[in-house]
Amino acid sequence: MEYVIEMLNIRKEFPGIVANDDITVQLKKGEIHALLGENGAGKSTLMNVLFGLYQPEKGEIRVKGKKVSITNPNIANDLGIGMVHQHFMLVEPFTVTQNIILGNEPTKKGKIDIKKAEKEVQEISDKYGLKVDASAKISDISVGMQQRVEILKTLYRGADVLIFDEPTAVLTPQEIHELIEIMQSLIAEGKSIILITHKLKEIMQVCDRCTVIRKGKGIGTVDVADTSVSKLASLMVGRDVVFKTEKKPAEPKETVFKIENLVVKDSRKVSMVKGLDLEIRAGEIVGIAGVDGNGQSELVEAITGLRKSESGSITLKNKNIKNLSPRKVTESGIGHIPQDRHKYGLVLDYPVGANIVLQTYYKKPYSKASILDYKEIYKKAKEIIEEYDVRTPSEFTKARALSGGNQQKAIIGRELDRSPELLIAAQPTRGLDVGAIEFIHKRLIEERDKGRAVLLVSFELDEILDVSDRIAVMFDGKIVSTMKPEETNEHELGLLMAGSKASGAGESHDKE
Amino acid sequence: MTKSNKLFTILIPIISVLLGLIAGAIIMLISGYNPILGYTALWNGAFGDAFTMGETVRRITPLLLTGLAVAFAFRTGLFNIGAEGQVIVGWLAAVWVGLAIDAPMIIHLPLAILASLAAGALWGFIPGLLKAKLGVHEVIVTIMMNYIALYSVNEIIRNVLTEQETTTDAISPSASLASEWLQGLTYFSRMHYGILIALFAAVTMWFIIQRTTIGYELKAVGFNQHASKYAGMNVSKNIILSMVISGAFAGLAGAMEGLGTYGTISIMSGFTNLGFDGIAVALLGANNAFGVILAAILFGVLKEGAGQMPTGAGVPTELVDIIIALIIFFVASSYIIRWILLRFKKEGK
Ligand SMILES: Nc1ncnc2c1ncn2[C@@H]1O[C@H](COP(=O)(O)OP(=O)(O)OP(=O)(O)O)[C@@H](O)[C@H]1O
Ligand SMILES: [Mg+2]
What we know:
The complex is a heterodimer of chains A (512) and B (349).
Chain A: E1 3-14, E2 17-28, E3 32-37, H1 43-50, E4 58-63, E5 66-68, H2 73-78, E6 81-84, H3 96-101, E7 107-108, E8 111-112, H4 114-127, H5 143-156, E9 161-165, H6 173-188, E10 192-196, H7 200-206, E11 209-214, E12 217-223, H8 229-237, E13 255-265, E14 271-281, E15 285-289, H9 296-303, E16 311-316, E17 319-320, H10 326-331, E18 334-337, H11 341-345, H12 352-356, E19 367-368, E20 371-372, H13 374-387, H14 404-417, E21 422-426, H15 434-449, E22 453-458, H16 461-467, E23 470-475, E24 478-483, H17 490-497, H18 503-511
Parallel strand pairs in A: 3-10, 3-11, 6-9, 9-10, 15-22, 15-23, 18-21, 21-22
Antiparallel strand pairs in A: 1-2, 1-4, 4-5, 7-8, 11-12, 13-14, 13-16, 16-17, 19-20, 23-24
Chain B: H1 2-30, H2 35-47, H3 50-75, H4 83-100, H5 105-134, H6 138-161, H7 180-185, H8 194-211, H9 213-223, H10 225-230, H11 235-261, H12 274-284, H13 289-306, H14 309-313, H15 317-332, H16 334-348
Helix pairs in contact in B: 1-2, 1-15, 1-16, 2-3, 2-13, 3-8, 3-11, 3-12, 3-13, 4-5, 4-6, 4-11, 4-12, 5-6, 5-11, 8-9, 8-11, 8-13, 9-11, 12-13, 13-15
The complex binds adenosine-5'-triphosphate and magnesium ion.
């Protein structure tokens, strides 16, 4: 049997937790091998071991049958192993080429030969259809493109085995489609790939085999051809998972949240929200569907006070909240699950407990007369950790040490716990495993049933269709049409999101 | 992680100090001095008798406060190199109030201390404001503020507080921290009540940082401004506040000199170095209030003991400066030590 990489009986401990416990993964040449497991199961840890970032306590790694000791990423590079991390490691003011050659610069008489490097980078890019502009600045290109730069970086260093850690979590459906094509062309060139993803459909679509990890333990490896989405899900969670979220029809009441003719500019002073109108009633979930970059982020930032609005009005329960400070907005009854959890959602160097009171620390019972009451803070944190199944050694652990999905669960728990009048959930299930997604969807619907208003912004059309009571399609800074989820489908939404006239869609349904 | 990390934060400074002392011994040997004699003289210079002990304490006092000032800013993500200037303006303000007002001690002394706090705070406020509103880096502004403090204070001493003299009159006793009792205990050293104020300040810093919502906000802003803004904190206000509090600590260090040790202020030909040493004290103390106390003690002892080395062992004072510098060097390169420790831990397994 020809294996390019073998990780045998790997064990990796962190204080208070065994992240990998006797896991075996064997990668065949030319296959795409999925790594599947719940949030915190130990997938990233295992791959960091392979990439030389962590040293295993036990176990053996073999590359092409030879036993190796990978004590740092340079050794991994030399062995032809490259990794595309979930959080990119790029220098923003540098160009694509500069980033790629960083640490490994080709020189001519002591000078960096940037022209030659640029040519090489462009060649690799063209070979695999990456469509990257080698001379573009990182800060000017999209997240999807940045990811391709990371891929290029590994290829430039001669990687034969590529590890992708949740590459699709940050991509739009179109970008995911393109990434899959890229992966297939990599395989065609004789590379092998390990892919971490929570999206079972992607595994079914592109992978050959799949290794499942549950709570740090290796459960086994299955051939994708012999399995199904629901089998994978139950293997991973250890019980059956419901995919379609059960919900009663909404019983919307009075309008609580209203936006009229809102205009918002981005940091370059370009209008991104262009006269948008939107209403949300108590007891309904409105889902905003749209391609990234059509003003969704600016809209959310304007509502939550993180960005100034130019004109128009935003009201909650008939009270103006436009251009209030974020604190005033929060106090008026708005909760916000931010799209970028590392940038906005958490202070990574604070313990989980301190992050749980990020908006409420100054209030009773968490503090009295400006003096913090840690007992109360950690009590609350413990409650949320239990209720939302945040897997962490304790409430005193730094947020940084949590797995990506568990960080997200902590944020969601914090925001839902306040039960705000209006909850804004931006990509709330990004990076979550199927079990956690199911749970979060249930909680969003519970909020709705309690009579709260929910605004869901998501690039996942499945999520929009499943959870929303009403869908608002956003295109070019405006809501171009609204409809009920049962009256539309992914295809039609896709067309509307791409800007094709709303004529047929929304109205024809109204007549039905 | 947390357990071994804690151990490391304690081990690293200790190892750094030891390495510094060993390196100092080697240098003494190479230069033809006897390190044992040298270090004995250092010890006697710091602890030899009641007088030197008193002097050691009075030397520790302002270092403790500037250490706190720098550590406080560090904890909130800011680098306050301006402690030096804040000390100078604090010193001036305290002496000025000490000279200008007639009042009973219970009013006069607190007022003079408050003046030093306010002056230091103002000197921190300006770089804080520039950082918060215009994004000018605090390091650059605080360095410039140091020079502004030095030269304008000299001008004020020469032209306002005196008539072209180099030293002011002594402050009125009602504003003095000096204590006959402490002096009596220590054969008339210049030890004064300021050490109590400094220790109280350390407790205050610990309390603000660890126990209050103010500290919670300040640290959050230091770690992640975006998340702090999201959480409803006023990022600008917190940056300014951090510099103000840090400056106040340093200003208080000035009062220790002005109201305690000297009772006057003199024209300075150069910086007092109290502020710059504060950076090293903060670093050595791992920016933690308790650690800063220990680091200030170490620094005070070394600096005071150094005075004895030329007479006691013929070792030049410069050498002591080199030893101190080496200790700082080893702390600053602590990641090397951390790395070595990790190596040992691995191999020990
Ligand atoms: N540096 C660290 N220090 C301490 N604990 C850690 C560290 N990194 C990870 N862990 C813990 O190890 C476990 C596995 O984490 P890991 O990041 O590998 O999970 P994951 O499977 O990638 O999850 P996700 O799907 O949420 O990204 C988690 O419980 C996490 O809290
Ligand atoms: Mg992960």
